[in-house]
Structure formats: structure tokens, C-alpha cells
Write a structure and sequence with these properties.
By secondary structure, this protein is α+β, with helices and mostly antiparallel strands. It folds into 3 domains: 24-36 and 213-291, no CATH class; 43-211, no CATH class; 310-440, Glutaredoxin, CATH 3.40.30.10. It is 21% helix and 32% strand. The protein has helices at residues 2-20, 82-91, 97-107, 169-175, 340-355, 372-382, 397-400, 425-440, and strands at 24-28, 30-33, 43-45, 71-79, 124-131, 137-141, 154-155, 158-160, 177-185, 188-201, 206-211, 213-219, 222-228, 239-243, 260-261, 265-268, 271-279, 284-290, 310-312, 319-321, 329-335, 361-367, 388-390, 408-412, 418-421. β21 (329-335), α5 and β22 (361-367) form a beta-alpha-beta unit. The protein starts with a helix and ends with a helix.
Length: 441
């Protein structure tokens, strides 16, 4: 009896010890209609190409049931999970290995980590538009995903002039279409649904859409909201999370700068958790409890240590690294030569750089996705004198910082901590000037 008691105590001790060392927390998520506390974004939708040599032709959905009196008919689809679709079409032989590898590289994703299904899944929603007998443009969506439009409603997409805050929950409630599709969950293919909103941006004559769905979960009583890829798909591979308690008023939308992306950090009850993302196969949010303080954690978030990087100045070829910039305030400016807002900001950066104490402040531009010849022309045309580093496959600076668009800026303090993001123009000049003036006192 005594031996049995000791054995049971030992087993319990081992179990408790193993649990205490388990840092990964899996939180079941619940899906909600609407945008919740997030600002919504939309993506353009286009019909299939008429080109017989289109390499994507085999991936086009085969549909029927378009109204017989329609003319100038165009058909296309909207992806609920682009990763699942590409993965599936590769294994079905609808796209080449070269195309598949190029997309993997461009999207920087690892298919095996997403628990995707090789079996056919209805992850795309077909749509069609054309002119009715009166010459009016009409649209139809295969809401029940049976590849037949004859049992679906014909409608005219809501006209909008700008994106702005017009795309909101009230618009979803009155105009969204409930669509059915399939997902791979718990190693099974299941049918799910979500509201799909389609609008027409009249001034550019383009159709745009998003999926008005987000997810929620809780940790230590703290509600966490989760968005998928700015509502442009429901893969939850690119996701953002926020603490709902950070919102002051009910119905308030969160500042996008405070949204915690995948592999960034969330603070709850004085603990720091790393956002490891959503496991769609199990429908759980995975967080990792971190024992280090902020100043030891590299991240692209305000309040955290900036990621180490290294590269050569494009003109002088002098090596530059984060460590070599210690002791100065530093603006990391991620831009591209084709980016309009980036080019508009160059005169402001020129003025700031000419008038600032360079012993206390430096600008380092990180150039991504741009031809070298275009960069040379830009440097000459705009008399750019601060260092330019090209982000490439070797240094991967753009990927390390998770840059999803240009321009993106990070302001670092002399210790290499991020103190502000995406400041431009007078706002940037005021912030830098105030910081240096305080340092001089």
C-alpha cells in the first residue's frame, strides 16, 4: 500500500512538472459574423482570363445555370483559403511544380505546417456577372457551392465611392451573402459558411469583396479577437489578434498599429505571450508564454527590441548593421521605387536629414521589390544622401520585419528599441526633434 501511494505521488509530480514546463497554450476559437473590433479591408475580384494559354485555366471552376438572357458574361471565383486551393491544385496536377514553388517563395509559407488536405475541397466561391435584357449589369454568386447558378439570387452589388469606413457591419447585415464552402478540420472535410460582401467601386469600375468573419477566444478571462488576412480570406494563416479590453468604447475599432501579427507578442496580466497563429485543422489559437522581458525580445512592435539586420550600403558598399547604429535614434524606412506614397515622402526625409544632428540620428532605407536601375535613378533624381540597403534573398530584412506594404517605418531609440511606427512628414520631424532635445537636456 505504501509503495502504491509513493508511485501515485511520483506520477502526479511528474505530470505537474511536465505541465509547468508546457509553454504552448491552445485556446479553442469561436467564429463570429462581422468585423468585430477590426477595421475592414477589401480585395479586388476579377473574372477568369479568356486566354487559351492561361496557365491557371485548369483551376477554373466549371459552372452552369447562368441566366440565358445575359450577355457579355464573365465568370470567376473568390478564394476562402488560397493556400488550400494552391496546395490542392498542385496535387491534382492543375498547376505545375514550378508555379507551386514560386508561390511558396512569394508567400513565404510552409504547406506542411498548415495541415492542408490533398483531397478536393470546395474552398472557392464562384461568381458571374453580365448584362441583363435591359442592358443593366447584374451579378450572381454560387452561394450553396453546387457549381450551378440557377438556384441563386441575382443582385446588383452595392455601389461605393471610397473604401474608408463605409465598409462596416451595418453594410454587411444588409448586403452580405451567406455562402457555403468546405474546410479541413480535425482531419475531416466539413461544410461551413460565412458572410461574403461584394461591392462595386464605381469610380474605378472594379468589384471588391471580403469575408465578414472573425474569431474570438479567452485567456485568464481576457477576451481576444482574431482577424484573418484583413478579411480577404479565411485561411487564418496571416492573422492579427487584439485584446478587446484595450478598446475604450463598445463598437470602437482598434488602431491597426496595435494589432498583434503572427510571431509578435501579446501582454496579458503582466505575462508576455507569443502569437504562434491559428491551427485551422483544430480551430485553436496557439500562444507561447515567454519568460524574457521586452528589451530582450526582437519584434516589429512598439516597445520591443528591433530585429538585428545587416547589409551593405547600395552606394558606398559599407557594411551596416543594427549593432553599428547603437547610440543613435534611427529611422528604418522600408520603401519601393514604384511606391507613390514613398516617393512623396522623400522631400520630407531630405529636409529632416539635412537639418538634423547626424551624430544623434540616422536614416536607413531598406529597399524591397525594386529593380536596381530604378533605385539608381531615384537616388540621383531626388538627391538621396542617406544609406540605402537592398533587402534580398541573402539578408531577408523585409521578411524578418514582416513588411506587408510600403512605406513602413520604424523609429528606434539609441538602445535599439522601437519607439514608434509609420511616422511621416511633420509628425516624424516633430517626434525626432523632441526626442533629441530631451536627450540633450
Amino acid at each position: 500500500m505504501k509503495f502504491r501511494t509513493i508511485l501515485l505521488l511520483s506520477i502526479c509530480l511528474i505530470f505537474i512538472t511536465s505541465c509547468s514546463h508546457e509553454k504552448n497554450i491552445q485556446l479553442p476559437i469561436t467564429f463570429q459574423d462581422g468585423y468585430g473590433p477590426f477595421e475592414s479591408s477589401m480585395g479586388g475580384i476579377s473574372p477568369y482570363s479568356d486566354n487559351e494559354n492561361d496557365p491557371w485555366k485548369k483551376t477554373h471552376l466549371k459552372t452552369s445555370g447562368i441566366p440565358k438572357d445575359w450577355t457579355d458574361v464573365k465568370i470567376g471565383d473568390i478564394n476562402t483559403d488560397i493556400y488550400q486551393s494552391v496546395y490542392q491544385n498542385y496535387y491534382l496536377g492543375n498547376i505545375t511544380k514550378e508555379m507551386y514553388n514560386e508561390l511558396q517563395k512569394a508567400w513565404n509559407w510552409e504547406p506542411d505546417s498548415l495541415n492542408l488536405s490533398k483531397k478536393p475541397i470546395k474552398s472557392k466561391i464562384a461568381f458571374a456577372f453580365g448584362k441583363d435584357s435591359g442592358g443593366e449589369i447584374q451579378m450572381i454568386v454560387d452561394a450553396n457551392n453546387n457549381y450551378n447558378f440557377s438556384d441563386d439570387n441575382i443582385f446588383k452589388p452595392t455601389e461605393i465611392s471610397t473604401q474608408g469606413n463605409i465598409i462596416n457591419d451595418s453594410l454587411v447585415k444588409s448586403n452580405a451573402i451567406k455562402v457555403s464552402f468546405e474546410q479541413f478540420s480535425n482531419d475531416e472535410i466539413i461544410e461551413v459558411n460565412a458572410p461574403l460582401l461584394i461591392v462595386h467601386m464605381k469610380q474605378y469600375n472594379i468589384y471588391m469583396s471580403n469575408f465578414a468573419q472573425y474569431a474570438t477566444t479567452k485567456l485568464h478571462g481576457e477576451e481576444i479577437a482574431i482577424s484573418s488576412n484583413n478579411f480577404m480570406d479565411l485561411s487564418y494563416n496571416k492573422l492579427g489578434i487584439i485584446k478587446v479590453s484595450e478598446l475604450i468604447e463598445e463598437g470602437e475599432k482598434v488602431n491597426y498599429l496595435t494589432v498583434v501579427a503572427k510571431n509578435e507578442y501579446l501582454e496579458i496580466e503582466n505575462n508576455i505571450y507569443k502569437n504562434l497563429g491559428v491551427k485551422k485543422n483544430e480551430n485553436v489559437l496557439v500562444l507561447e508564454k515567454i519568460d524574457l522581458p521586452k528589451n530582450k525580445l526582437p519584434s516589429s512592435q512598439v516597445g520591443f527590441k528591433a530585429f538585428d539586420f545587416s547589409g551593405n550600403d547600395f552606394i558606398t558598399k559599407i557594411p551596416i548593421s543594427l549593432d553599428s547604429l547603437k547610440g543613435k535614434y534611427v529611422l528604418l524606412d522600408f520603401w519601393a521605387t514604384w511606391c507613390g506614397p514613398c516617393i512623396q515622402e522623400i522631400p520630407n526625409l531630405n529636409d529632416l536629414y539635412k537639418n538634423i544632428d547626424k551624430s544623434k540620428f540616422e536614416i536607413i532605407s531598406i529597399v524591397g521589390d525594386s529593380p536596381i536601375k530604378d533605385l539608381e535613378k531615384m537616388i540621383q533624381k531626388h538627391s538621396i544622401t542617406w544609406p540605402q540597403i537592398i533587402s534580398n534573398d541573402s539578408n531577408k530584412i523585409k521578411e524578418t520585419y514582416g513588411i506587408g506594404g510600403y512605406p513602413t517605418t520604424f523609429l528606434l531609440n539609441p538602445e535599439g528599441m522601437i519607439v514608434a511606427k509609420n511616422l511621416r512628414g511633420m509628425e516624424l520631424e516633430k517626434k525626432v526633434t523632441n526626442l533629441i532635445n530631451k536627450a540633450n537636456k
